[in-house]
Amino acid sequence: MGEETGLRQVMERYGDMVYRLALAQTHSSHDADDVFQEVFLRYLRAAPAFREEEHRKAWLLRVTVNCCKKLHGSFWRRHTVALSETLPAQNPEEGELLGLLEGLPPKYRAVLHLYYYEGYATEEIAAILGRSPGTVRSQLSRGRALLRDAWKGAEEL
């Protein structure tokens, strides 16, 4: 199997996951596209060998988070489109939740996304993000509390 065939298979298997995480972090489909391309370019250049598929998946998630951080800190950061405008909500409550998620700091958005959307345990998230499991648990708790407070505040308006 050639490099191109192997890359194509990895992109087909994990591309949606990488894109969803990039979109959740950047709030912009254009930036998510850039991150997606950068992640798989790094994969092709590094040609890492993995013990198992879970290790490959974790590597891709970690590189995605790092690329999003790099983009976020970039001087040339472009104006972004809100996540709620990019991903249409299925109902008004979901739209409101997406709007509230956009208001969270990136460290909480990343942890909440990996936990709820990708189904990772706190120990796995810690390994992916390079944080301690205790930090991840604290960020999950604080992220939930921030969402809860924001939800209550939105209901009072």
Structure in words:
The protein is an all-alpha fold. The chain folds into 2 domains: 1-81, Rna Polymerase Sigma Factor, Chain: A (Orthogonal Bundle); 87-157, Winged helix-like DNA-binding domain superfamily/Winged helix DNA-binding domain (Arc Repressor Mutant, subunit A). The chain contains 8 helices and no strands. It has helices at 3-26, 29-46, 53-72, 83-86, 92-102, 106-117, 122-129, 133-156. α1 (3-26) packs antiparallel against α2 and α6 (106-117) packs across α8. The longest helix is centred in the first third of the chain and has 24 residues, at 3-26. The chain starts with a helix and ends with a helix. Mean pLDDT is 80; it is low at 75-82.
**Overall radius of gyration:** 16 Å
Q: Helices and strands: which structural class? A: mainly alpha
Please give the largest β-sheet: none
The CATH topology annotation of the largest domain reads as: Rna Polymerase Sigma Factor, Chain: A
**What is the oligomeric state here?**
single chain
Q: CATH superfamily of the largest domain, please?
A: RNA polymerase sigma factor, region 2, helix turn helix motif
- CATH top level class name of the largest domain: Mainly Alpha
Number of DSSP E strands: 0
What integer is the average pLDDT? 80
Our count of helices gives 8
Query: How far do the termini sit from each other?
Result: 58 Å
Query: How many structural domains does the protein architecture include?
Result: 2
Low confidence ranges: 75-82
H/E element sequence: HHHHHHHH
What is the CATH architecture annotation of the largest domain?
Orthogonal Bundle
Which range best describes the helical content: under 10%, 10-25%, 25-40%, 40-55%, 55-70% or over 70%?
over 70%
Strand % is: under 5%
User: What is the 3D form?
Assistant: globular
